[in-house]
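#struct-help
A.M.: can someone run this one for me? Single chain, 666 residues.
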Amino acid sequence: MKVYYHRPAGGNVGDDMNAVLWRRILPQIDEIASPQWLIGAGTILDGRLNSFAGSKVVMGSGFRPGAGGSAPNSDVRFAAVRGLLTAQRCGFGPEMAVCDPGFLVNRLWPTQRTPGERVAFIPHIYSEQYSNIAAAAADAGFDVISPTLPLEEFLRRLASCPRAYCESLHGAIFADALRLPWARVRICSRHYEGRGVADFKWADTFSVLDLPSAAVNRAALIPIKRSWSLMRRGLRPLQAVAEKRLVNELTQRRDDAAVFQLSDEGRMLERVEELITRVQRLRSQENFDTLRPVKPSPGQSQSPRENRAVLRVLAFPKGGANTYLQSFSDCLESRGARVDEFNFWRAFFVRYDVVHIHWPDTHLRTHSWWRAVGKHARLALMCLVLRARGTRIVWMMHNLKPHEKDHPISVWLFPRWFPQMCTHVIALTASGLTSAQHLYPALRNKPSAIVPHGHYRDTYPIAPSRRQSREQLGLPKDRFTFLFFGNIRRYKNVPLLIDVFRKFPDSGAQMAQMIIAGMPVLGMEASDLEAQAAGDERIHLHLRFIPDEQVPMYIGAADILVLPFDSILNSGSVLLALSFNRAVLAPRLGALPEIQAEVGPRWLQLYDGQLTPQLLVQARAGQNVPAEDEVADLSAFDWDRIGATTLDFYASAPRTVAVAPMAAEN
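D.P.: on it. Structure tokens below:
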């Protein structure tokens, strides 16, 4: 049996360890004829595995989101994968998620801890290659440990440090295995490997240990991509400033123990022993024969559509702070499309099959009349060029109108030209499509499709229990908990929610509490909300930006989310709550009746009119709240299904397409 793993030029300790690790666990590896290949540590589960012949077994590998090509063929059998997210993407249950093989290093290469004073700094190979961050960190007193070092030297150097800042994923894995506190940092590698890959593999790896995987630093480096070789000298001074800023931020926090973390040792060792056990079973042909091939998710093909050329999509935008966007792009790329981040240079000078526009108003927003006219002219010229080339201009209808106030000229201009200029329309619900066609009659004659908002189950780790989440937030653990979560905007009616909850009658065993978590924006003031809630100890305000790693804790604390919108077409907040198996109370508006038809009224409780204390009392009733172990059926919002139907619409685009069916309210 041979070992397959990624072999980057110059080496990478997390990949290179495969050459020796498996032989230490399984000395007779050369004598095993079936399987012929062991797929080792790395983010390598994609169509590459179909490029070489022979039976294969996956042992702790990770899924690579956004990789073109087909899924692994049936000659790939699975013994263990790296984490819960990979198990989900491959269609397996959580029992398949064991751990990354890197956690075995202290078991196979026992390393004596001899902590000195210098904190380790472990960059990714790309950041080390395309910046001078290693030199900047060394000048600041960090022990810079290159991921290109041989494994034993790497472990020896790491063991001499008290703590470690890690951009290298296997740097963090090895630190955890050595019981050395670590923290993830962002430098510039995710600009090269892609945020969808970087964030996914970190969250996937530490999902089996219940550890957050978000970076602790705010500053990051200016990306100087490999294709910009002629510009590197000109951009170098700017990058040097960013390097110094990043290193200074980490220097200020390197003695703060709260910044660093470690997994539970017992749980980590349990995972290690389980992986070793599964490797040892490969000695038996009978055990290999019982292993399962990849199980496709609902709607996933076993192979890519025959004879379909790679579809090139320019996404407007592709990623950003909104995790929905990255998930949408990933689901297209996992089906073989190429998705690029929008900029006007690409739109004008590079040929694409599709320009997919999520929120056109984000490129038109301004408070200046002359800037408004200029931005509309630029976007209109781009659309004319695209139409002349035969490029599809797909408008995805998230909102009928912008939530944020725009310049009056923009408000007047937009409906007079953009609905005519786009060539295709996607709505998230049937009612949304009908409303859009009523508001913009030009859309009635364009090819249209209904593709629902996807869930967030692949985006975040599993939430802690309600009691654990409340304990982490410092809240009473036994109170029934209502939650509002998300940016606080006027249309979300948070002041009304506070007024209604203040009138909520509870006492003794019926005590309840309300968490309001999110940043007030665009005219909403934290001081006003604090004054409104003053005197009611049941209301807990967390009026700030909630980072991704804390999202599971906040939503995990809730019995039910309350979202008292006064207007809404679609709501990612509802899908976010349902993805964590938390019920929602919301008004009967926009897409919500269609979502309720899919998940049921216990998961999405809808009301007419305004929110009242009596509605909270009814929601509080025990029989209406799903139990801790209940799971919402979100199969209608599966991302692979969304990717397949979207690409089919791109390719065929008849006048009207009914895809990913959702029951409309009668």
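A.M.: thanks! Confidence is low (pLDDT under 50) at residues 226-231, 296-308, 654-666.
D.P.: also worth noting: The radius of gyration is 26 Å.
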